[in-house]
Fold:
Amino acid sequence: MNSYTATVSVVGEGRNGGRVQSEDGLLETSLAVPKELGGAGTATNPEQLFAAGWGACFLGAVRRAAAERKVRLTSTAINTEITLLHEDGGFSLAAVLNLELGGVDEPTAVELANAAHQLCPYSKATRGNIPVTINATAV
Structure:
C-alpha cells in the first residue's frame, strides 16, 4: 500500500492573519478573513484552499472513473464552491461541485460525476457531514 502525508504548518492567528507553509516549501501563503465576513480579504482563506484541494482531487477521480469505463474525455473542468455558514451560533460548510466534461453526452457526464464522488477521498471524508451538490454538464 502506498501512502502520502501532507504536512502543513499554520502560525499566527489562523484564518485572521496567519501564515501557511507546507513542509516541502511548495505551498506558502498568508491567510485573511474574506471581506464578505468583515475581514481584510487580502489573502487566501481556508475555504479557498479546501475548494482547490477537493476540485483537483475530484477531477483526478473523474479521470479514473472514465478510464475504468474506457470513456475518452476531451476536456475536464470543475468550479468548486465551498460556503462557510454561520448559523445557530456555530459554523458549518456546504459544497457545490460544478463539473464540465467534454467528449461525452449528459448521461455519461452524470455517471462519471457520481462515480468520482464515490472514489474521491474528499467526497468520502465529507459524505454525510455537509450538504454537497454535484452538477455535471457535457460541453
